[in-house]
Recover the amino acids of this structure.
């Protein structure tokens, strides 16, 4: 073998080794990211999860608002990325505790009794005005001593929470918004920022208050983080809730 042929062979071997090492490194990085994502969502390979859907309070018959359907699609994509499975159930058909399967619960307490139960059990510092009559306080949030009314289409609030019962329990993700479009905004925010949320909160609980700005023009895309309200939302309020709240 002359020198030219030897150099060609060595070059091909070096190129093959570099490509193999690069593929191994990329695969290892992808697997680490996948494991972190699965840990954050409590969704190991082939795990089962629940998508709890609310009902559209404006519809005479049982129905789901189209923005809530979009929210479920966003969540379904996250679940599929983790290699897990999802079961869609209506808010009045779930009769089990929490912690056995990861749960994604969509909708405020006026349209989702499962959400109302979770709030009572895990977020005692949060009040939501569930009065069905139109008015400036309809859908307003009260968290600790702070009050957050809704300006429909202009400034609307939504709570994004990850809560657990402790130990090895699977998490419950709550998307409790003042309108259906804010529920979708919260699921989209989670899809975009779950890595940052995992770095900050790990596998612990958190409750974030988000504001959806000018949804009548921008839909669910313009969202700002108002505050981390975990402590306030999980601390029982000393006073009695006013009428029409949950």
């Amino acid at each position: 073998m002359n020198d030219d042929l030897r150099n060609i062979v060595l070059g091909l071997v070096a190129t093959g080794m570099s490509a193999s090492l690069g593929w191994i490194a990329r695969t290892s990085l992808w697997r680490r990211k996948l494991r972190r994502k699965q840990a954050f969502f409590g969704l190991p390979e082939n795990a089962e999860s629940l998508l709890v859907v609310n009902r559209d309070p404006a519809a005479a018959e049982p129905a789901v608002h189209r923005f809530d359907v979009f929210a479920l699609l966003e969540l379904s994509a996250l679940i599929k990325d983790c290699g897990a499975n999802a079961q869609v159930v209506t808010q009045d058909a779930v009769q089990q505790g929490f912690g056995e399967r990861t749960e994604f619960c969509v909708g405020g307490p006026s349209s989702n009794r499962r959400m109302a139960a979770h709030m009572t059990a895990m977020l005692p510092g949060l009040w939501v005005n569930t009065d069905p009559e139109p008015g400036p306080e309809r859908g307003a949030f009260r968290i600790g001593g702070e009050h957050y009314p809704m300006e429909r289409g202009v400034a609307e609030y939504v709570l994004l929470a990850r809560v657990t019962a402790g130990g090895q329990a699977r998490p419950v993700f709550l998307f409790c918004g003042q309108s259906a479009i804010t529920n979708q905004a919260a699921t989209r925010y989670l899809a975009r920022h779950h890595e940052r949320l995992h770095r900050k909160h790990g596998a612990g609980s958190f409750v974030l208050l988000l504001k959806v700005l000018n949804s009548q023009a921008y839909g669910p895309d313009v969202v700002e983080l108002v505050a981390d309200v975990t402590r306030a939302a999980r601390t029982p309020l000393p006073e009695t809730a006013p009428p029409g709240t949950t």
